[in-house]
Amino acid sequence: MSKKASVSRGNVGILVGGGPAPGLNGVIAAVTIEARRNNLNVFGIMDGYKWLVKGDEAEFKKHVRELRISDVSRIHYDGGSILRTSRTNPAKTENGVENSVKLLRKLDIKYMVTIGGDDTAFGAMEIARATNGEIKFAHVPKTIDNDLPLPDNLPTFGYQTARDLGATLVKNLMEDARTTDRWYISVAMGRHAGHLALGIAKSAGATLAIIAEEFGHEGTIPLDHICDIVETAILKRRAMGHRHGVVVIAEGVAERLSPEELKQIPGVIVDYDPFGNIMLSEIELGKIIKLKIESRFAARDEKMTLVEINIGYVLRCADPIPFDQEYTRDLGYQAVRYLLSENPRHQKNAMICVDNGKLSPIMFDDIIDPATKKTAIRYVDINSDAYIVGRSYMVRLDKRDLSDPELLPKLAAAAKMNEKEFVARYGYMVK
């Protein structure tokens, strides 16, 4: 006699927004498995919010995939996303939020899991608000930038894998730099915060890391200041007897450069994505710095060649390391447990956080920055011991260098200046 089929408890939707990150498939798998075990139907929505905001039911249904345990049982090993992703912003699309609500209702979605960074979370909050509690949302924080405000410095999933591979790549560049006696400028992702660039540089032991937080959180950063940091690192290495090194710089530095200054640089395009962010992929930060530094040495009648390389896109779809394989399973499982929870404190829409193996949800309202009205950002704390340790191992101009009777003459000679000229030119950097 066959068993009676279980009665469905409703439908859960899953979508991925923003850029890829290692471990996306792990969350999708864990959500699907736990939801199916609890008699929920699971629908994967392709390409983030892209088809939701259009409001075309027929087209939307072509981009919805029902997920079963057999579809996802092994995908947690793999990079990328079986649901793909996009940067579509519901709040910036005409009727985008209303269309999204309409189509989620057509699919009879009762629960929604969104996976993404701050922009995806903001889109989820706008849609959740418009449903008036009809659909319960759980947002799983994802970004290799590690810049979402999780408690106790917990990492966002994908960060550890990106740092692991990034450190390996930079270590290889360091060996190439030593072998060929040259300098590399390596750009890592990190639109708002420099966690990844700093983490890679510290792990690999790179010569220097530059992150936007060094310059405060407001105002523009002069391009010449960035170039001065790189140039003096090169000069200091020469004074120490070495003519090679690797600089790791966070791409977010480019976002803090003056748009007017950028527009004056040949070949640079200043454009914006649907969330109002400068499209950093169009600004070749490493190349801009490379050409500036080379021209400075050329002015001293010296030919110097730097090599610039952007490692950002290499990291995003890497197969997750075991840390992220395990972490994403916890996050996906707890997302479903939160959605199904009858605990009175768990009835609001929330960002899912797993702290010491336990569910620790953060309510949507608590992750909004009151000043920007967007998701709060976790910056690198340059007063923390973690940053101070990283900074102490970098080769960069230091206040003590300008009073060192042995080093200062060598620095000035490397720059083809006298000591007084060197201090006058670069002394502002260490005040």
Question: What does the model show?
Answer:
With 431 residues, this protein is α/β, with parallel strands linked by helices. It has 2 domains: 11-157 and 320-367, Rossmann fold (3-Layer(aba) Sandwich); 162-314, Rossmann fold (3-Layer(aba) Sandwich), CATH 3.40.50.460. 39% of the residues lie in helices and 13% in strands. The protein is built from 16 helices and 13 strands. The protein has helices spanning 24-37, 57-62, 69-72, 96-106, 118-131, 159-180, 195-204, 223-239, 252-255, 259-263, 285-298, 312-315, 322-340, 385-392, 407-414, 419-426, and strands at residues 11-16, 41-45, 64-67, 109-116, 136-141, 183-188, 208-210, 245-250, 306-310, 350-351, 354-355, 358-359, 362-363. It has a 7-stranded mixed beta sheet, sandwiched between helices. It has a 4-stranded parallel beta sheet with strand order 7-8-6-9, with helices on both faces. α1 links the parallel β1 and β2 (41-45). α4 packs across α5, α6 crosses α7 (195-204) and α8 crosses α15 (407-414). The radius of gyration is 24 Å and the shape is elongated.
